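Explain this one:

_____
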Amino acid sequence: MKALVTTAIAAALLLLTPGSAPHDRPVPDATCARQIHPNPGFERGTTGWEAGPRMVVLGDADRPARTGRAYATFAGLDVTRSDLLRVTLTVPANCDLTVRFWVRTTTTEISRGDYLNVGLAVTGVPPKTRFSLAFDGGAQWREYVMSTGTAPIERTATASFLSSEAAGNGVTTFDLDDVTFTLS
């Protein structure tokens, strides 16, 4: 009889233990609710980014950052060249990565010749250019957004910013700031 009472008490305690009852809901996965890049505003230069040798981070009072003190600039020199800034991040299973960034364009161009191509490559999906920005982007900061979507497996995502400049067509400068990488 004593063993039967002990078993009954243990079973009752098991039912009262938090999380053991069948009607409890699972706790949401905290890995899908955070910003995952340590230097989105370039306040520490290009730390955390893969940057081409000509990438410049400025803190210019005449052309201030969108927020903070610094921003990355693809400085126009009216020479034929390209600059690359990119980062590769891990996207956990069942998470969506949203990339938000701000661009400001200053130019002396009168026709399209200089570009900032923005891409998002995700494991298992062919890479593609999401935005192709040119001289007509505007001298005010503008926000752009791109997303990976969710998948049942862990993936890698590479966000790339590639500028292309042609000589003899005027000078275009693309400024980039506040690039956030948010999981949801």
DSSP finds one helix and eleven strands in the chain.
